[in-house]
Structure formats: C-alpha cells, structure tokens
Amino acid sequence: MKQFKVTLFACAVTGAAILAAFVHTGQAQTAGPPDHPAVTVHGHTYTPRSILARNMGTPEDQTTQFPPHKIIGNIYYVGTRTLSSFLVVTPQGNILIDSTFERNVPTIEKSVKQLGFQFSDIKILLGNHAHGDHQEGDALVKQLTGAQVMVMAEDVPALQAMKPGGKEHPIDKVLHDGEAVTLGDTTLVAHLTAGHTPGCTTWTMKAREAGKTYNVVINCSLRPPAMLTPPLVDAFNRSFKLVRSLPCDVQLGDHPAQYNMQEKYAKLQNRGRNPFIDAASCKIEADIEEAMFQAILAEQQKAAGSVTH
Ligand SMILES: [Zn+2]
Asked: What pTM does this model have?
C-alpha cells in the first residue's frame, strides 16, 4: 500500500519534470511515459505519452496566464494555459479550486483581480488531486488569504509530503466521499474518484444562468499510470462508473485540454450560446481514459501471459 501511494505521487510530478526536460533537450524518445499502447477514441489517437503532453503542454504553458474568464454562473477560470484553477464566487466569500504550482499563485491572484474580485475574499481552498501541478501552492494561498484548506482523506498522506520550500501543507478539514462544502448560496459535493491518486476528487455543483440551472462536473484526472495493480484496477473501474453516472451539462477538468477550453473560449468571444454548456462532450475524457486503461490492462495481461506460458 505504501509503495502504491509513493508510485502514484511520483507519476505526474516526475512525468511533468521529464516532459519539461525533453521539451528542452528534444529527447522525446527516451523520456516520459511510453508511446504505447495507442487507442483511437472519437477519431483521435492517443498514447500515454501524448495524453501527458496534451495535459501539460510546455513549461511555458504551465506558467503562462490564460485570459481569465467567466465559465458559467458564478464559476470563473483563473488558471494558466494548461493547469486549471477555478474561482467560485458567492455573497459570503469565494472558493478556489486548485492552487497549481506554487510559482503560479501570483498569476492566479492577478487573474482573480482582473475579473474584479479580491484574492483575500477566498475563504475555502479545495483541490483536485495531490500532485504538485494542482496543489503545490496551497500553503502560499493559505498564507495570502487565510482560506480554510479542505482535502479528501485518501490524499492526506501525499499532501503532507508536499512541502514547497519546507512549508507544511495546510489541512484545516478532512473530507470524505460524498461530503458537501457550502459557502453562501453554493454547495460543492466531493466525489471520490480514486485511481490517478488515492483521493482524486471529482467536484459537482449547480450553476445558474439566464434562469436555468446546470449541472457542473469538475473531473479529477482519470489518467492511468503505466502499471496497474489489482487495487488500482478496482479503483479505476469504480471511478469510471461513478463519473459516467453524474448528471452533467458542463464538464471541466484539472487540465483545460480535458474539456477543450481553448476551443470553447474562442467560441465564447462570439457571444452566442454559452459554449461551455455542452452535455454531449461530458463523457469524452472518460471515454479516452477508459479506453487507455483497458489497453494498458490488456497489454499488461498479455505480457504476464507470455511469461507464464
Ligand atoms: Zn496528476
């Protein structure tokens, strides 16, 4: 179990570092996750390596501000080009979901201010999952805002080990599967969707716009690691089923590429129908990751079979 957690914690962090290294050196063939198996989903072909590259982009993408914008209702985007950070605004103060890397916190603060809100009005800080590209900045956000940091129980060990500059990871409240977080008129529900990390959290909430109410789902990463243990297989199977069962009109994710943010943002400029309201695309990321999960599993079982026979 200990090894299971350590391996998972290392995956995205080292993956990102390796990706950053090969972007600089051009040695793509020797680093990062493997370029097999390949799966084709909705007309696009993916490998573990291409999915990580799609998620992370370049080191510059990870730290460059994306234009902050309203997504729907009281939900705003305040992240970088490839690392999501969402601001949920209520009359009793605001909620931030994902601090991302610590070095991005000033960029998030700038985005919050550009939208006309105060960074110090952030009362609650939530997270997607315990990897550095999503929650490394928690201590700095807490220091700057005094926000209550609420984390999923199963991710506590990995978060406690995440200490940028030696800072203790703040944890004010430990959440459990199905628990609600309410501030003002807004309630977010934490759904445990384990696999990518043990405490990977999919957040759901309702957003109101033009007299209608919409179901918003902020997916946790469903990206499987290169090696699937039996407990991980069970976790992913449960998570795929759960994610598919959630009512969804607007799907968001921890990396903007998971919901085609750039494409939807471009449409937003046309001032037509809100492009983020797109129930038809809600399950695409689950389709891609589940196909990859099955392909990795099949490849692993085939390799195991060839050893025993
Ligand atoms: Zn991750």
From this structure: 0.89
Q: Confirm whether 70 is domain-assigned.
A: yes
| Token code pair at residue 167 | 């800072």
Angle between helices 138-145 and 105-114 (to 10 degrees): 50
Instruction: Render pLDDT for 263-306 as a digit per residue (tens, 0 to 9).
Output: 999 998 887 799 999 999 999 999 999 999 999 999 999 998 87
- Residue at 258 is within a domain: yes
Task: Note residues around ion ligand 1 (Cβ under 5 angstroms).
Answer: 12, 131, 221
Cα(232)–Cα(206) distance, integer angstroms: 30
Q: What is the CATH number of the domain that holds 172?
A: 3.60.15.10
pLDDT digits (tens, 9 = 90+) for 91-104: 999 999 999 999 99
Q: Distance from the CA of 12 to the center of ligand 1, in angstroms?
A: 5
Ligand 1 centre from 16 Cα, in Å?
9
Number of domains present in the structure of the chain:
1
Q: How far is CA 241 from the centre of its chain?
A: 18
**How far, in Å, from the CA of 277 to the mean position of ligand 1?**
25
